[in-house]
Specification:
The structure is a single chain. The chain is of the alpha+beta class. It has one domain: Ubiquitin Conjugating Enzyme, CATH 3.10.110.10. The model has no long low-confidence stretch (mean pLDDT 86). It comes from Talaromyces pinophilus. Belongs to the ubiquitin-conjugating enzyme family. Pfam families: UQ_con.
Length: 118
């Protein structure tokens, strides 16, 4: 468990110290606790030159206790119409977060993959 915590802390530190991938912003809300590393809430701006370019979406990553052995769950908290997003729940459905998950992948890698489905 301690090595899992170290990994999660390192992943969060990477995002805070080196910045988020392009088109992402940290999302601060009144009920978000900065010491809760089991969740990451970000805003995603739609990429230029796509049907999503004028949009801004809230994306939540919920990190399981056994991370990185198991992948985080990514869910859009703002409705988005996309074939890789479950309409009713906002759950992101990409193989990287399911069958192709590898423990070497980081939170940054997940955000980059998520951005790629735009």
């Amino acid at each position: 468990m301690i090595s899992n915590s170290r990994r999660l802390i390192a992943d969060h530190a990477d995002l805070h110290n080196n910045g988020l991938p392009p088109n992402y912003l940290f999302c601060v809300t009144d009920n978000q606790h900065s010491d809760d590393l089991s969740q990451l809430l970000v805003m995603l701006a739609g990429p230029h030159g796509t049907p999503y370019s004028a949009g801004l979406w809230r994306l939540q990553l919920r990190i399981p206790e056994d991370y990185p052995a198991s992948p985080p769950k990514a869910t859009f908290r703002t409705r988005i119409w996309h074939p890789n997003v479950e309409q009713s729940t906002g759950a992101v459905c990409v193989d990287t977060l399911k069958r192709d998950w590898e423990p070497k992948l980081t939170l940054r890698d997940i955000l980059v993959v998520r951005y790629g489905i735009s």
